[in-house]
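Researcher: Let's try something more involved. This one mixes different molecule types, so please make sure each is placed in the same coordinate frame as the others.
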Amino acid sequence: MIGFALSVVLIAFVYIVGRVAVALLTDELRGWIPLLCRLLVNAAARRLPPRERARWLKEWRAELAAKADRPLSALMYAIGVHHSAKALAAELGVASDEDSSLATAASRRAQEVNVQYHEGYITSEEMREALRASMGLLARRDRVRFFVKWMVPAYWWAVRHYFVWRRYHREQKRARRNS
Amino acid sequence: MIEPQLTPQVIALLEVMLRDPTDPWHGFELCKEAGLKSGTVYPALARLERAGWLDSEWEDVDPSLAGRPRRRLYRLSGTGEAAARGALDRLMQQVQRARLAGRNAPRLGEEPA
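Model: All components are placed in one shared frame. Result:
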């Protein structure tokens, strides 16, 4: 009899704990889904040509807002949008055309800046400033490539030149002291 | 006007929109009515819009009153409606011709007439 009562209590306890856990988990998911949807449509918009991004992002966000009471269908919608971004970019007049022409222009400018620096027309600080300005024109995915190709060497030269300058000044100081 | 490529998704969208050509549709509604996923609807809409078959505009509501941002609405343009009807008619004729040809074709093992 006691065993039966204990098992009833245990089952009731597990049931209550389970219900509370499921409710908490559901609330948690409900809180995260809108954020996830926003991230997905933002990522989708970043794949589009820059001139089209604002319009499509506004459209998708409006659709998501209209489905705020149905988080799962909003999530499915956002996944679909994210999935189609590449095809949409292709439909919208080849996204990469604009991006790649900007990337080419930025790369050409970076080469010019590089030559100007090495010929002594501009300082390393001016070079980095000009490179940063060129990088600002690029799409996100091109920015990483640009950063690795141009900005990393620019910072490396700045650091190296600092050490060269410091060694030169130390030698000068030592020479002055010896004389 | 360039005729867009008539994929099954584009045809499904046109069929839905031709039910009432003056009616404006928003993206999600089109997904539901045409039985398509959002992933296929937007590229098709962009294609039709670029071809001039669709006009799109922002919904005429006050976001603060509606409690949500304005949606983008799509409507068949005047020329788009005629072009879409023509294209779908041509497609139906082709399908019927293919069906007839299939019906009159000799069965496996039969001698051609």
